[in-house]
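ok so for the tutorial part 2 we go from a plain amino acid sequence to predicted structure tokens. step 1 is just haveing the sequence, like this:
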Amino acid sequence: MTGDDAMMPGAGGNYSVMRSMRRDSTLSKRPLRDGTARRVIAFARPYRAELVLFLVIIGLDALIGVATPVLAGRVINQITSRGEVRVVIWIAVIIAGLAVIDAGLSLLQRWFSSRIGEGLIFDLRTSVFDHIQRMPLAFFTRTQTGALVSRLNSDVLGAQQAFTSTLSGVVSNVISLVFTAAVMFTLSWQITALALVLLPVFVLPAKRVGSTLQAITRESYGLNASMNATMTERFNVSGALLVKLFGKPVDESVSFSSRAARVRDIGVRSAMYGRALFAALSLVASLAQALVYGLGGYYALTGQLSTGTVVTLALLLSRLYGPLMSLSNIRVDVMSALVSFDRVFEVLDLAPLIDDAPDAVPIDIKPAAASVEFDDVWFSYPTASEVSLASLEDVAVLDQTPSQDVLRGVSFTAAAGQMIALVGPSGAGKTTISQLVPRIYDVRTGAVRVGGQDVRSVTQQSLRDVIGVVSQDAHLFHDTIAANLRYARPQATDAELWQALRAANIGDKIAELPDGLETVVGDRGYRLSGGEKQRIAIARLLLKAPPIVILDEATAHLDSESERAVQQALAGALQGRTSLVIAHRLSTIRAADRVLVIDEGRIVESGTHDELLRAGGLYAELYRTQFAPGRQARVDEVDTEVAAKA
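step 2 — the prediction. this is what the tokens look like for a chain of 646 residues:
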């Protein structure tokens, strides 16, 4: 949109003024962190050449906007004074030429604006996304997903506007205002002063309307955010199922309808206030033009001004009010953009708790050397201040509660090819042990070694390349079966995918599907049963073929039939590999080379299944609790079938 479009009464261009009015003026009072503006400039440095050309084009466009009314006045003067036809034609040609140049400049302006703006969006989004990917798991357990998405969308777009809408608006309005006012005062300071007298008549009510619009807009944003959160929670599979099971669809509809109705009412009020503001601007501009025509006509008839000068003043007047209104709210515009940048920088400045050491080296171990060792490991989960931001948790102050030790002096070694079973009460620290091996978390003191190397001294990528994990809730992306499998090995062929699926005891099931490998599994894999998801996860593990395997209760929530199928798949997956298995099944425990009993973060017992039963300690108690006679019969039956098919 050119300057002429933006400021002409009756045109839709007063949107820039309206948008400024709608922005929350409280942003101008929000303290920014030191150096934000300097970092913004540094972030835009790759685009400095484009920015300079962009600003030059904006300036030329503003000059053309002032020159055109002046030339139009010259035409009028030539006509009224019966001047030369040749002069009129030449002026008309110049006006036409300026129009062509202006059209070209507007295209160039849009091209540079898009290039700079989209480039900044790309840089900011990729930087934030990459940074978030390197954050520890604790960051995601504390952070609202919607807040993170907002940083990648709303705040990035707000930051982008600093170099497109805000910057171009400031430069264009300043140049337009300076040249317009200068030309008008040169032509007639009396008429210019009289026209400006009406400005407070519009500015004062506009400020009040602007404050009301800001309040309405804030409430609208809050309600829309609430509706979005409701839809996100209710429209996923788990949320939809909960609503249906508790018979609440009507209640949910009523609740959503009430908020939607409030948004509707706010929309009507906002539209009316906006139209009132626009009508007021148009009215004042029209009154000012009436004064110009009246006083200017008097001066023209009395010979003090030419007719063309009066026309020029009237045309220039339309370019005076818009820039003045926009610049009166420039602080809010600039602070809005800076706050968006500040919120993006806030995420980028949160250092990842787990990162590669400067001298980290890749780890490359073969199955014959794939040992896992815990050496006097103490661990407590990171505090909120170490991994999170208050703004991402939607709290005023982060939780200051110190973390308690979860592991206390844990030491053991899993030799290459051994299976170590971890058992113990819920919350004893079993899953925590399994997460320290691939560096999902880091130990506080002590060391975890893989293949004899401290996991903190090797690169995270290479470490996770040699470790495979199957959890009790195998996650699948909303994509095809093939895409989910290739997440482990992107270059795998279809033949290798089918081989892994057959080894995981699910190949025949996938082959029966109409789309086979191209079957979309749905959100979190909900189109598949629990057993099918687990076997696809095992196939993914087999495709990766890591020398070390971690199983976190991979059959905990399965029915008997699925449990048999998964156990058969696991028997092949663990063969020849070093494995840590969080076990709840007797067959797994019996197959383990050693059983570690974890309680309150310590290894309280260690030995084989039979040795621990004879000891009569915690393991014997857990055995009696978890493997009652009725359950034991079913477990033995499953064990027999698995052993027969292995």
